[in-house]
Amino acid sequence: MPERKTWIDLLRGFCMLAILLDHTEIYYTGDNLIDYDFYVVNVLVVFFFLSGYLFYKEKGFRLRSKLVSVARGIVMPYFIFTTLIAVPKALVHGRDIPDAFFGIISGQASWFIAALILAEICFALLLWISRGKTIVLSAASVLSFITCILLSDYPELYWQLENACMALPILYLGYLYHRHEKVFHRFNTPSYSSFFLILLIVLKIYEHRNGVNLMIEPVQVNNWLLFVIDSLLSLLFLLTLAKQLSRMRWLEWIGARSIVYYFCAGGVPLLVSKGLQKANMGFSGEYYQVMIAFLLVCVFTTIITWFVYRYVPFITGRKQRKG
Q1: How far apart are CA 97 and CA 87, in angstroms?
Q2: Which residues, in sequence order, are CB contacts of 160 under 8 Å at separation 6+?
Q3: Three-class secondary structure assignment of 237-288
Q4: How far apart are CA 171 and CA 181, in angstroms?
């Protein structure tokens, strides 16, 4: 077995905490206090990119192995987790229970996971058909990106087709990066990380002042060129930074179990927010209150995740450890 690349788990863990913060803000305060475009879109892109990174294998790509991995590691958890929370979620949001189960079957129950499933299956088939030829993969990725733009006027498609079309070229970027990773080693320095961060901050300020929208669920991007530049800069900054940081085992632990964290990222912030409101600790305008809610969300989500991986790991596609 190849040695696990801890920087991947570290980066996933950081991005997962960012998602939890975003959802905590939304459920606890009713809105994003920190603009969505400042960081949420970037961490979602990172997740797609890292999934593509893991597609590349030096010994060659095996379609059957990858499809089995997708089925066990993403498809099965999607159906198990969304089914478990379907009824409570429907009751909380006042929706019909049959509609909730139809949402699961049609890939509407968890937009990101559904889009990732479809994108990974399509990219796996594309790799197999093209034999990894760059010209074919590049052409298909460009076509997929154009299709995403065209489908952006038709949100809520089955299995998040529009988001999957956006995710596929990002998967390809991750695959390409891994394939030519040695070329990028020169950028893993504090100087380059600082440079990418400064450029990204300048770009974010420009986007904010000019009303640029980068929301990707539903797809509401109004400047695709800036979306591409923004995504590339944030990827370069976060990748170079993650590869320079010392090991953070707690963050790596979160990253290695990010799929369970993600499925908890809706329900736990909602329940924590309602609990705080009933305890007369609702949001009153001070951001430290959000931090308290966020800390509680992290604690409860971690407990649930630990329980799942300790006692029922099979629902994440893993085998139960003896002893």
Answers
A1: 6
A2: 107, 108, 111, 112, 114, 115, 118, 217
A3: HHHHHHHHCCCCHHHHHHHHCHHHHHHHHHHHHHHHHHHHHHCCCCCCCCHH
A4: 15
Note if the pTM is more than 0.90. Answer: yes
- In a 3-state reduction of DSSP, which class is residue 199? helix
Closest CA to 124 of 62, 170, 77: 62
DSSP collapsed to 3 states, 35-101: CHHHHHHHHHHHHHHHHHHCCCCCCCCCHHHHHHHHHHHHHHHHHHHHHHCHHHHHHHHCCCHHHHH
pLDDT in tens, 205-226: 999 999 999 999 889 999 999 9
The structure tokens 């991995």 sit at 69
Burial pattern 91-123, b for ≥16 Cβ within 10 A else e, equals: eeeeeeeeebbebbeebbbbbbbbbbbbbbbbb
For 58-84, write each residue's pLDDT tens digit. 888 999 999 999 999 999 999 999 998
Residue 5: count of CB within 10 angstroms of its CB: 15
- Paired with 219 in beta bridges are 216
